[in-house]
């Protein structure tokens, strides 16, 4: 038993984001360790196709690893290059650099908020171009591209002169001269509920760049105050000359005899929804639609967060990594078998490389080794990163002592993972720097989750049907189904791994339903048997038995916790009116001016949220830093914290300074001068010292 090698294999599965798989000599191991989610490297081959591709999966499903494997293949090609953009870190960095911008000279149509966004996107676009330039320069200097240097004369700086000029112009304070630049050509009509068109003439001047003029129409609903939202993406495209940038990139690539550039966009779904839409409309759509096929986008997104804008859905590939879409083409048994096969193949490849041992050296089962694979699948749901954590916990309880991992070890590890990594989600979010309504909305999902788990626990002793009576012992009650229309209600719980969408099928009444599985660790904690009975034909439809229809639970939750209110007249609508409202863009049917807003309020935890002082509220990243330092109970470097939070170490450095200013962390240096972070006693007292029952899950009916 090679304990340290086993630990290396496990840690390689836990890696976040762009953490590369490398050996001790710095050699990349991505080709040796990569295990494709589908046979015959189908996901990889799809990603390498000359189509814009969206790679869709929850955190930890291996999106960044698949990107690295594709980039390795592209490195071997002489007619294609690539660039990698961590869009979340890039956007946050750009936002943080916009300090002290004055809007006092802004007149005309643009408000200060829009001007602020333009400055943010200016910094964002400059960083985007720099990253593309850096990647191309890196490729030119690599050995495989040595022959490329003969294809152009002059220095590398001359080759990129146009891009450098583009960046310089964007960064020039004189680039956006918006004073009087946006002129209203038509006055707004003060009519209630009518749609008007308004023509805006855009005029902007750039340093060393001729001024240009363009016109476009904005159509929108106006409320009683005659407010309107600028079509930001169109303003941005014109001001920053996206077509010109695309043409410059194309000319540089042509100089190097390059046909295409693949731009990998990671962490796309981490952007706030509004910013995500603007990035698609202002940057990704023009890159995709105006590049004459030489720019190919490869975008990593979360389920339910895919926004295409004007990108033609019929001309892109969508690759899903979560189990119900990746393997759910046949029946449930086939889906489970294929997901288990991937889990096995992934772990075998890692252990074979690092340990060179047979798997029996580390795993033991009283029944068969297949029982091990099935439980590893249940505990991870085929998620490589979660699998890494499960095995890391098994290492700490078994392997480190020379003991083999058994089924109980896996169950205990999954219970620990739920407690430490998933269950704390709600408790920390009461300190989130958002409005009461936003935090209450998060806690309302906690109420819904508690009701779901309570029902699953009640069904353990249910004897009201012949099917349940015939099951020996306690029946499994880990899965449930809801009508497909309720998927959006459960999406946040699924995104954060409280539940996992398992399958889609028709129920006993012929209705389309979505089947979900409770978290395996939660089931171990609450003594809920997982899966479905075996041995009888009728068990194939076990998950769609009527007793597992939790749609009434969701309906009750919506009626009790959800409010639909017009932001103009304040009239409340019934929850049942939501589908009709959505068909008309949430336009209020009463005043016909305002938009109806959906607000989920926590009735049960409202007082708990109100008790939190405003001074204790923090942004999500800062809360994550504190939780990581609390969980690890040790000093940590920025890159270690970043690995846990799935973000860049630069972001941790910036946010760490904010926490230090508030005396919630200390920033010191070790003997080598490297910065280390430590959580303070004050932070421990405020955020982690309350273990009262009211702030924990209540799964008792």
From TrEMBL:
Superkingdom of the source species: Bacteria
InterPro entries cross-referenced by the UniProt entry: P-loop_NTPase, WH-like_DNA-bd_sf, WH_DNA-bd_sf
Protein name: Uncharacterized protein
Source organism of the structure: Aequorivita soesokkakensis
């Amino acid at each position: 038993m090679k304990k340290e090698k086993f630990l290396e294999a496990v840690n390689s599965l836990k890696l976040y984001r762009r953490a590369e798989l490398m050996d001790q000599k710095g050699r990349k191991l991505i080709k040796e360790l990569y295990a494709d989610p589908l046979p015959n490297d189908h996901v990889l081959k799809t990603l390498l196709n000359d189509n814009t591709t969206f790679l869709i999966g929850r955190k930890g499903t291996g999106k960044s690893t698949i990107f690295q494997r594709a980039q390795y293949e592209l490195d071997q090609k002489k007619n294609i290059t690539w660039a990698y953009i961590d869009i979340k870190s890039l956007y946050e960095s750009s936002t943080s650099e916009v300090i002290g911008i004055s809007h006092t000279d802004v007149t005309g149509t643009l408000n200060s908020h829009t001007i602020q966004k333009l400055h943010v996107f200016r910094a964002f676009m400059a960083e985007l171009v720099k990253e593309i330039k850096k990647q191309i320069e890196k490729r030119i200097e690599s050995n495989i591209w040595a022959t490329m240097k003969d294809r152009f004369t002059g220095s590398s700086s001359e080759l990129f002169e146009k891009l450098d000029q583009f960046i310089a112009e964007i960064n020039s304070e004189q680039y956006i001269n918006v004073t009087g630049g946006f002129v209203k050509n038509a006055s707004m009509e003060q009519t209630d509920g009518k749609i008007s068109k308004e023509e805006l003439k855009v005029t902007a001047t750039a340093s060393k760049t001729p001024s240009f003029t363009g016109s476009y129409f904005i159509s929108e609903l106006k409320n009683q105050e005659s407010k309107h939202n600028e079509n930001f993406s169109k303003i941005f495209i014109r001001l920053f000359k996206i077509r010109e940038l695309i043409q410059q990139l194309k000319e540089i690539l042509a100089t190097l005899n390059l046909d295409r550039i693949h731009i990998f966009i990671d962490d796309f779904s981490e952007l706030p929804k509004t910013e995500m839409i603007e990035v698609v409309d202002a940057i990704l759509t023009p890159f995709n639609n105006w590049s004459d096929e030489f720019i190919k986008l490869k975008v990593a997104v979360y389920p339910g967060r895919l926004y295409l804008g004007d990108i033609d859905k019929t001309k892109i590939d969508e690759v899903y990594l979560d189990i119900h879409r990746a393997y759910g083409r046949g029946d449930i048994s086939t889906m489970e078998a294929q997901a288990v096969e991937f889990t096995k193949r992934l772990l075998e490849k890692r252990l074979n490389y690092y340990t060179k041992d047979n798997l029996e050296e580390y795993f033991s089962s009283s029944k068969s080794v297949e029982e091990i694979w099935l439980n590893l699948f249940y505990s991870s749901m085929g998620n490589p990163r979660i699998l890494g954590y499960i095995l890391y916990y098994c290492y700490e309880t078994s392997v480190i002592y020379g003991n083999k991992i058994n089924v109980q070890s896996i169950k205990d590890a999954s219970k620990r993972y739920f407690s430490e990594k998933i269950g704390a989600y709600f408790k920390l979010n009461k300190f989130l720097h958002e409005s009461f309504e936003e935090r209450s909305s998060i806690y309302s999902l906690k109420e819904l989750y508690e009701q779901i788990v309570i029902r699953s626990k009640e069904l353990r002793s249910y004897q009201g049907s012949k099917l349940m009576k015939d099951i020996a012992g306690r029946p499994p009650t880990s899965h449930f189904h809801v009508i497909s229309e309720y998927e959006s209600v459960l999406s946040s719980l699924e995104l954060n791994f409280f539940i996992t969408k398992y399958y889609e099928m028709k129920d006993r009444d012929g209705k389309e339903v979505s089947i979900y599985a409770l978290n395996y660790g939660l089931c171990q904690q609450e003594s809920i048997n997982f899966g479905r009975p075996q041995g009888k034909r009728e068990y194939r439809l076990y998950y769609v038995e009527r007793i597992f229809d939790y749609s009434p639970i969701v309906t009750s939750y919506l009626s009790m916790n959800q409010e639909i209110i017009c932001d103009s007249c304040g009239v409340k609508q019934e929850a049942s009116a939501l589908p009709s409202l959505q068909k008309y863009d949430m336009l209020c049917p009463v005043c016909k001016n305002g938009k109806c807003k959906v607000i989920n309020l926590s009735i049960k935890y409202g007082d708990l949220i109100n008790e939190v002082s405003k001074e204790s509220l923090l942004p999500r990243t800062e809360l994550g830093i504190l939780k990581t330092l609390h969980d690890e109970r040790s000093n940590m470097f920025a890159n270690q914290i970043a690995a846990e939070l799935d973000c860049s170490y630069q972001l941790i450095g910036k946010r760490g300074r904010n926490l230090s200013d508030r005396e919630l962390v200390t920033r010191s240096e070790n003997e080598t001068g490297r910065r280390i972070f430590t959580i303070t006693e004050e932070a421990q007292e405020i955020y982690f010292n309350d273990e009262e029952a009211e702030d924990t899950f209540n799964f008792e009916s």
